[in-house]
């Protein structure tokens, strides 16, 4: 089996390339490696491999955005299998799907490879967009936009103090965020949620770097789960946010969760959106966006003993 590593040098706050340079010294099998040059490059690399006549293991060396781009290019091709080495900031992909911890674990996989088909989330606006772990709108997406725009983030990252910026923007957004109205439709059902802080559509349980937002999500059941957090005071939101790490937030009446093959969502404000934790513009005002899932559409490595970062 051919092995191609796709390395995103921008992942992990710019530390992924350094990590790769150390990692590549430990690889005892033949491989190819592509260091991405820009956003979208990983998708092009995976797409080019669709014409390959041999089985290819694509190993994403980055974070959730890198893996999404690879899977968007590889989905539907039976001979392309995707695995990951965690080198991003949040690495929720590696929590929800199989991941290699070191070169030795790839050697073990290559000796006896196992594959498993997984679902791919999608939503359609002007064009179709894919998500592997989750896509959401509101409070959390606004924080990630502000953090990424922050001029001091890069500077603080040098001292591994980037989390300070995150905490500051959580507080700032908590004070200023304007809650919105969200209409959720599926089949003939229509539900209107007022004072919404955020809504997330999930394909697997984790988002935001280890928060178990959707504890019951499974990435091979042909369903996506919607979580809507609404009607909370600013103070209680902080409290509920804290419980998301353990997945116990679902017991609050202000946290609505539902599971369906498809949701149609309409927001009454231009709220910020994320796709797998990457900023992705805003949700169009009063325009219905359909979230769905392509069942078992891409092939993941199946590592029996799931290895942690
Ligand atoms: N050479 C590059 N320069 C700048 N950005 C790039 C490059 N290659 C890829 N990207 C973009 O970097 C973005 C962030 O990558 P990724 O999500 O993998 O890392 P991360 O944000 O550190 O990790 P995580 O999402 O797990 O927190 C991706 O959306 C991808 O499009």
Describe this structure in words.
The protein is built from 10 helices and 15 strands. The chain is α+β, with helices and mostly antiparallel strands. The protein has 2 domains: 2-113, Probable inorganic polyphosphate/atp-NAD kinase, domain 1 (Rossmann fold), CATH 3.40.50.10330; 128-295, Tumour Suppressor Smad4. The chain has a 15-stranded mixed beta sheet that branches. Strand 5 (115-124) and strand 6 (128-131) form a beta hairpin. Helix 3 (41-48) runs parallel beside helix 4 (64-74) and helix 8 runs antiparallel to helix 9 (162-176). The model has no long low-confidence stretch (mean pLDDT 93). The site of adenosine-5'-triphosphate (ATP) has 22 residues, from helix 1 and helix 4.
Could you give the count of β-strands? 15
Taking the alpha carbons of the first and last residues, their distance comes to: 24 Å
Question: Unreliable stretches, pLDDT < 50, 5 or more residues?
Answer: none
The geometry reads as globular
Q: How much is the radius of gyration in Å?
A: 19 Å
Q: Which structural category fits the helices and strands?
A: alpha+beta
Estimate the strand proportion: 25-35%
Major sheet, described briefly? 15 strands, mixed
Give the CATH topology of the largest domain.
Answer: Tumour Suppressor Smad4
CATH architecture of the largest domain: Sandwich
InterPro entries: ATP-NAD_kinase_N (IPR017438), Diacylglycerol/lipid_kinase (IPR005218), Diacylglycerol_kinase_cat_dom (IPR001206), Lipid_Phosphate_FormReg (IPR050187), NAD/diacylglycerol_kinase_sf (IPR016064), YegS/DAGK_C (IPR045540)
Keywords: ATP-binding, Kinase, Lipid biosynthesis, Lipid metabolism, Nucleotide-binding, Phospholipid biosynthesis, Phospholipid metabolism, Transferase
Protein name: YegS/Rv2252/BmrU family lipid kinase
Cofactor: Mg(2+)
């Amino acid at each position: 089996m051919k092995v191609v590593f796709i390395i995103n040098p921008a992942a992990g706050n710019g530390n992924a390339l350094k990590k790769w340079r150390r990692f590549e010294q430990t690889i005892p099998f033949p491989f190819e490696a592509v260091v991405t040059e820009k956003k979208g490059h990983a998708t092009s690399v995976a797409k080019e491999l669709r014409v390959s006549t041999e089985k290819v293991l694509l190993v994403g060396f980055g974070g959730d955005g890198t893996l999404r781009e690879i899977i968007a290019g590889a989905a539907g091709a039976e001979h392309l299998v995707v695995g990951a080495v965690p080198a991003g900031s949040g690495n929720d992909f590696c929590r929800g799907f199989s991941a290699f911890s070191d070169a030795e674990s790839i050697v073990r996989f290559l000796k006896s490879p196992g594959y498993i088909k997984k679902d791919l989330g999608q939503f359609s606006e002007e064009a179709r967009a894919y998500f592997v772990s989750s896509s959401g709108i509101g409070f959390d997406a606004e924080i990630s936009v502000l953090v990424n725009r922050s001029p001091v983030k890069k500077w603080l990252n040098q001292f591994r103090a980037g989390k300070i910026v995150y905490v500051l923007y959580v507080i700032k957004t908590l004070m200023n965020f304007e809650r919105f109205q969200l209409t959720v439709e599926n089949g003939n059902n229509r539900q209107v949620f007022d004072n919404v802080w955020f809504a997330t559509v999930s394909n697997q349980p984790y988002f935001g770097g280890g928060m178990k937002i959707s504890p019951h999500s499974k990435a091979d059941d042909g369903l996506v789960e919607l979580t809507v957090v609404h009607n909370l005071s600013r103070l209680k939101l902080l409290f509920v946010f804290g419980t998301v790490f353990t997945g116990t937030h679902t017991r609050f009446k202000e946290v609505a969760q539902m599971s369906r093959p498809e949701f149609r969502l309409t927001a009454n404000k231009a709220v910020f959106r994320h796709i797998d934790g990457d900023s992705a513009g805003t949700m169009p005002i009063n325009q219905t966006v359909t979230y769905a899932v392509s069942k078992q559409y891409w092939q993941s490595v199946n590592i029996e003993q799931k290895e942690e970062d």
